[in-house]
Design brief:
Blueprint (H helix, E strand, L loop, with lengths): L2 H16 L2 H8 L3 H15 L4 E4 L2 E4 L1 H21 L11 E6 L2 H18 L3 E6 L5 H6 L5 E4 L8 E8 L2 E5 L12 H6 L1 E5 L8 H8 L5 E6 L5 H7 L3 E5 H9 L4 E4 L8 E7 L6 H27 L4
Parallel strand pairs: 3-4, 3-5, 8-9, 8-10
Antiparallel strand pairs: 1-2, 5-12, 6-12, 7-10, 7-11
Helix pairs in contact: 1-2, 1-3, 1-4, 2-3, 5-11
Length: 311
């Protein structure tokens, strides 16, 4: 391959990572017209538009995405071999995009921000909507990391288990179900709120109840965790939520939790990332930092549960 073609590959990689000609030029220390001219040559050489306008940025074509999957890893290997990358979070600027639910932002965003203010003042963290196309978000580099339920097995996606997310029944402190044992019969008879990210009026609890030939009344649903605690605190609804998501409300006495009166497997929360970033020191810092924050959050939650065993 000609030297010019190799230069085009490097510029193409930068545009794919930044989704912007201007940002790619800054990344490569080039002028914007130079990158635009290179993009025009790419389109001629590879006979594909490669990128189309999308809002203020660019969106790669299917051909560009396939091409990038082929060249990103070997190009990274060459770059690392020639110039081993370094990253100093205390002095360098970087923006990371993480896809996660609003329930997890409620758990992680405050301690993560506190950590950044102390150790990495130039790091920006942007939350990206948690969609059903998690693998595609990582493959297309729309996000640097996904946190949440991950059931895929894509060969280019790496994962790490973070913690279990056990369910509890949550209600206001003066709810009648706080008195006496919360039996399965009393649980089913109660009017309930379901937080369903997909919008479907069925969750893990309903699947297990159906196996027993039982059904609960879902009187209301939400498609985000935001507002669920306030709604439960102001009404006679009860809800089933992961304990870590509501732990702070339980600690403050704003809500009360009771054990779920049926066996529902506790989902495992994962951290997932694309393998092309395995050796990127900045992304390694992000993964290590999120693991540290996870350990801190888990320790705080487990300590509270030890003091409140009924939850």
């Amino acid at each position: 391959m000609a030297k010019t073609d190799l230069n085009l590959v490097v510029i193409f990689d930068a545009i794919m990572r930044e989704q912007s000609v201007t940002a790619a030029a800054e990344r490569l220390a080039m002028t914007q017209p130079s990158v635009s001219n290179a993009l025009a040559r790419m389109r001629h050489v590879w006979r594909d538009p490669l990128f189309v306008k999308h809002g203020r940025g660019l969106r790669p074509t299917p051909y560009a995405e396939r091409l990038w999957q082929q060249i990103a890893t070997p190009l990274g290997d060459i770059r690392d071999a020639v110039t081993p990358p370094q990253f100093d979070p205390a002095s360098q600027q970087r923006c990371f995009r993480i896809a996660l639910t609003d329930g997890l932002t409620g758990m992680f965003w405050s301690p993560l921000r506190q950590h950044i203010e102390t150790h990495a003042p130039y790091i920006d963290i942007h939350a990206v909507p948690y969609t059903g196309a998690l693998e595609q978000q990582l493959i297309s580099a729309d996000v640097d990391m996904v946190m949440g339920h991950y059931f895929g097995n894509h060969p280019q996606i790496a994962t790490r288990a973070l913690f279990e997310n056990p369910f509890v029944v949550v209600m206001r402190p003066d709810h009648s179900l706080t008195q006496g044992e919360l039996t399965l019969e009393r649980f089913i008879a109660a009017e309930q709120l379901l937080v369903s990210l997909s919008g479907q009026a069925e969750g893990s609890v309903d699947i297990e109840l159906a196996k027993m030939g039982l059904q609960r009344r879902l009187a209301m649903t939400l498609n985000t965790f935001a507002g669920a605690a306030e709604l439960i605190g102001e009404t006679h609804l009860i809800t089933v939520l992961p304990y870590p998501v509501v732990a702070k409300y339980l600690q403050r006495g704003e809500l009360v939790a009771r054990p779920l009166p049926l066996a529902v497997p506790a989902p495992i929360m994962y951290m997932a990332w694309h393998k092309r970033g395995e050796r990127d020191p900045a992304l390694l810092w992000l993964r290590t930092t999120m693991q540290t924050i996870t350990d801190q959050v888990n320790n705080a939650i487990n300590s509270n549960r030890c003091h409140n065993p009924e939850q």
